[in-house]
Specification:
Blueprint lengths: L2 H14 L1 H13 L11 E3 L5 E3 L12 H14 L4 E3 L3 H10 L2 H17 L1 E8 L5 E6 L4 E5 L7 E14 L2 E12 L2 E8 L2 E4 L8 E3 L2 E3 L6 E5 L8 H23 L1 H4 E6 L6 H10 L2 E4 L8 E6 L4 H18 L16 H7 L1 H31 L11 E3 L8 H10 L6 H7 L6 H33 L1
Parallel strand pairs: 14-15
Antiparallel strand pairs: 1-2, 3-17, 4-5, 4-13, 6-7, 7-8, 8-9, 9-10, 11-12, 14-16
Helix pairs in contact: 2-5, 3-5, 6-9, 13-14
């Protein structure tokens, strides 16, 4: 096979794969497009065949707890920007400048991708102003070719996407294929299962003064939700579907008032079983035969819908979904009457475990990103920082009992350093800046006190 044939085959395999099907399913459920929307109401008809029924309520209710879990987990880890810790102040300033608000917005979108699809992709590039930047790539359009079984190093990567194109005055959909390699990017059109080059040779990743350059690594960084690249939808889809089904059935039963009372038409002739089942579902009535000389009459059978049963099962379903998603319930009983910090930490135990695993994967990805930043700083002569260590501290977005924490800080005065106590205060974002403010206030107060003492001394001397 030629290189182009291998690329086409890899794309076709990915398009047919269960992995991509799961990715699409996760993104579809996140958007609120659940399987319940395709539900049809059916009944057993004549001959025992299942038939669709049109004239009864068919509610398709969606309680999108899955989306809530995705947003909860993403914001728990990245709701607050992570802190950068390094001993080199110049390096810290450069990194803080690179990790802008736009960067964190992009990283949050990639985090949602990694939860929906198991993996998210970031492309490192230079924007039109010559600044190094980060772009999100749709995971359902990226085919990674790995060098190793651990999926840590890319051999090359393929990206395909559709765009609108025009030939003369005719509109058509054009499928573009980009192949990322360490020595540049190739661009093709995929037409009739063949690749047609859209450019001569490979395109460089960097252009400075009309001169092309390339990174020594492929500028594509994976952000994984876990080492197995497992999407969250695989753990909770059946529970989400059951929750939607239960809610829809409950609403259907509430609307089917006439079905709660079944009419029994006596002495009107019996029915074949298929017709009996169909008429019971569709009309809420059944016909039975009596004695020859009996008169026709109408009776009723009352069916009561137990609302409490629905409530109990709904509660079980929701709790199971939250536990399997490793999230937390903000309405948990543990933060009710006795919301101490131990109870809050117990409520967060599952999401904390999942976040620890996710942070491990993200730390590795951020190390890869830092290599590109270090190379950029060296290229623009801002300094060489390859050998300087840097740590990323994720600020988890956990509820806190602030009164209890502040009381503990006060009780620790004299036992711990001022730096440690200030850093633990729930209202402080930057401990160094807060200590500097305290020192400035103390210095100003000392100077004001000294001025007052001096004025008082002068006043006493004048009286004498």
């Amino acid at each position: 096979m030629t290189r182009e044939e291998i690329i086409v085959e890899e794309i076709n395999l990915f398009l047919r794969s269960k992995k991509r099907e799961t990715m699409l399913k996760g993104m579809r459920y996140y958007e609120g497009k659940h399987d319940i929307l395709e539900r049809k109401r059916t009944a057993i008809g004549e001959g025992g065949r299942v038939q669709e029924i049109q004239n009864i309520p068919n509610n398709r209710v969606i309680d999108n707890l899955y989306r809530k879990m995705i947003m909860q987990k993403a914001n728990y880890l990245l709701g607050k920007p992570f802190s950068i810790q390094t001993d080199n102040e110049k390096y810290a300033d450069l990194l803080n400048g690179a990790f802008s608000r736009r960067f964190f917005k992009t990283l949050n979108a990639i985090c949602i991708d990694s939860l929906n699809c198991g993996i998210g992709w970031a492309f490192v590039y230079y924007d039109s102003n010559g600044n190094i930047s980060l772009r999100r790539l749709n995971p359902t359009e990226v085919v990674p070719i790995w060098k190793d079984e651990e999926h840590e190093t890319l051999d090359f990567a393929i990206r395909f996407f559709d765009i609108d194109a025009y030939e003369g005055k005719e509109h058509r959909i054009m499928r573009v294929v980009e192949v990322f390699e360490s020595d540049g990017m190739s661009r093709y059109e995929l037409l009739n299962n063949e690749l047609k080059p859209l450019q001569t040779g490979k395109e460089n990743y960097i252009s400075i003064d009309e001169t092309g350059y390339n990174w020594s690594r492929i500028p594509l960084i994976p952000f994984k939700a876990n080492a197995e690249e497992t999407a969250l939808i695989q753990h909770v889809k059946t529970l989400q579907d059951a929750l939607n089904m239960l809610l829809s059935d409950f609403v259907n039963n509430m609307q089917e008032d006439c079905r709660n009372t079944i009419l029994v038409l006596e002495n009107c002739g019996g029915e074949e079983l298929g017709s009996f089942r169909k008429n019971l579902s569709e009309y809420g009535a059944i016909k039975v035969s009596g004695e020859m000389d009996s008169r026709a009459s109408v009776k009723t059978l009352r069916i009561e819908v137990d609302n409490e049963n629905y409530k109990v099962i709904l509660d079980i379903m929701k709790r199971s979904l939250i536990e399997n998603a490793m999230g937390y319930d903000a309405k948990d009983d543990r933060i009710g009457g006795n919301a101490n910090q131990m109870n809050i930490q117990s409520m967060y135990s599952d999401i904390e475990l999942a976040a620890n695993q996710m942070e491990t994967e993200y730390q590795y990805s951020l190390e890869s990103l830092v290599w590109f930043l270090d190379t950029h700083f060296a290229n623009v002569r801002q300094g060489t920082f390859y050998d300087i260590s840097v740590d990323f501290v994720f600020n988890r977005d956990m509820l806190m009992n602030e009164t209890e924490i502040i009381s503990n800080i006060r009780a620790s005065v004299g036992l711990l350093s001022r730096q440690t106590l200030v850093a633990q205060h729930p209202w402080v974002k930057d401990a160094d800046a807060e200590i500097k403010r305290l020192e400035d206030e103390e210095r100003a107060a000392a100077e004001a006190d000294a001025d007052y003492q001096h004025e008082a001394h002068d006043a006493q001397a004048g009286e004498k």
